[in-house]
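Sequence in, structure out. Go.
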Amino acid sequence: MTFMTAADVTVPPPEHNSRTITPVILSGGTGTRLWPVSRASHPKQFWALASRQTMIGETLQRATGDAFVAPIVVCNQAHRFLVAEQLRENGCEDGRIILEPVARNTAAAVAAAALLAGESDPDTLLWIMAADAAFRYPDRLPAILEKAASVAREGYIVTFGMKPDVPETGYGYIRTGAPLHPDRVEDGVFHVARFTEKPDRLRATEMLHEGGYLWNSGMFLAPASVMLSELEKHAPQVLDAVRSALANSERDLTFRRLETASFLHCPNVSIDYAVMEHTDRAVVIPADLGWSDVGNWNALWELGDKDAQGNVTVGDVVLEQSHNCYVRSEGRLTAVAGLTDVVLVVTTDAVLAIHRDYAQDVSALVARLKIANRAEAEIHNRCYRPWGFYEGLIQGERFQVKRIVVHPGQKLSLQKHFHRAEHWVVVSGTAIVTRNDEKLMLQENESVYLPLGCIHRLENPGRIPLALIEVQSGPYLGEDDIVRFEDTYGRQ
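Output:
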């Protein structure tokens, strides 16, 4: 199934300018069931999985237009520059980014966004959503959102219930109750009777046949003032801790860094448990958007464009006599023959091969890798930085080789190392290299040696990316062997 791009969808402007919609994007997940592509260092929301756009990029595009003010993104500190780059690429430079010092689930994230948005406009409607969901029919969203906004302005917390088409065991369910407006049943807005946790296959099948159940998308629309009052009523510990963390927060470049000590006191609880299961303001609107949380590789097979044999392929893939497979290659030629119902994912440093029925079990594999202290469990071979990225090419005893790419106008920190020397060879672009008291300009095929302990910096003054090969040598080559003296991005 081909997805429409979010840029093709226009949301009408709000009825009242004083009650605009504030998109709140929760970007705290790591998506371990989509390993080896999604890892803690670069999780699934920053990958183009369901379309040619990154998942958080699709989310930002859905929340762009006259109906919306600048979005608020809540994420962890490690992903702050990835989020900032996604905001820039999607024309949301004025977006606000809240940094959580530790993970405390969605109730804390929602509370932080509601408090921040409420400072300037308590009546703004918060459109709360995950950064990593996909919609097969985004063109249906504007009408549903307009209806939800009308209901939310009556003082309700509107949740978007997705119409189920299969007995899915990976989602929570919502049981619809009585119509919100008995005299306007055709409005299609209902009280929430109850929330049901992820069922087993038998119960999910029963609910599908019984009817009246919807998938819980985790997407909400509510006035900031209402969300805060319900947090105060049902989860005061969450609200108090986050309020203190925000009051004592620091501004770091374009980021709002929540204070650690206060935030640590916040209970680790979801907004569903903290508020939605207790509030009498919860209503649900059924929505047939072709929604998926893209929680595992089988979900991507279900969403993808299939060939005549039911296969979904991404990248440089060749298939022969294979059926109903999902095969993805992040660069290498991947050839498959004689397989059925298999997921095969190939990256530069890992290969995953599983039956599609075991897609939920990938997180167990990642857990085993973590126990074994395998770096591949959380870190990609390519590591992104605010100035660009680097990736490992070769590693041996007392040496390693990396490729470094620096974006135009960007520069690395002024730094030194205690345990390694480095040799840089420019492959393309122009480099300005600081080496102690020297400043050197290097062109393609020129090189420089940086002895152990020298203070150095790399800068790209040009208009095209700077690419170079770095050869490190020494007894210890870990990334933590960096002493920074000055950094454009405020890193320590």
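Check: Residues 1-18 have pLDDT under 50 and may be disordered. The two ends are 46 Å apart (CA to CA).
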